Amino acid sequence: MAVERLSIELTNQCAKACWFCYSASTPSGQTRWKASEVVSFVTSCAAHGLKAVSFGGGEPLEYPGVFEVLDGLRGILFRSLTTNGLLLDGTVLDRLVLAAPDKVHVSIHFPADLPRVTRQVHRLAALGIRSGVNLLVARSQLEVMERVAADLRASGIENDRIVYLPMRMEDTPTPDEMGRVAGSLRFQSMSCLAACGKSPRFASIGWDKTVAWCSYTKTRRALATSTYDGLMAALDGLGLDFCGGTDDGRLLRLSRRSLDGHGLVRRRQ
Hints:
TIM Barrel, 9 helices
């Protein structure tokens, strides 16, 4: 087994404090990561085949050492960052451009986020940073999110720059419903969209240094040492509990034909 992609929550501090956040983020959140430790850990993993790391939270731009981390890993592997965009302006934006992450995605959690996020994604692209959108889709908001997605595509942010994320735990859309939001076009989503399962090439690391096969599962194990060996030890024999789905179970019963009709492109959890 060779883990090729890591998702690391730098902190669970976030001003938005969305009720559905898988890391239970709050404005007074915490972290157990020092910036130098993140750089050392990811560098250790890169020496054993890690190809990409994504930073999230919480809100990674509220983590004091985020730019030190990005600078320290420059040229070592692919570095991406997902942000709510609330701080993506002024000096923070200037520093982010200097740190030159390989990709930045800005999240749309609610329809009201659309105008701001659209401007920010285009601004990032104009500044030379590959950019896109993480679009959260709740089953109860399918019609409005179809319009949001259509507006994104009309603005020039096509499906190859949008990751369609289903709401988890409850209010979860089916893959077929996700496909409709994506305009019945080829789209990107989580690798577990069709059914819960772990990928041997992906792992998630929490702000509290716990390890899981997925960002959403509650099945986690502490990282004993911030090294590649520590990661492998934490993953060894680790299970994966289903995080939730549609109330009627259709998420797991949908046929492969239904997915293929929308040209699903699977992504990490």
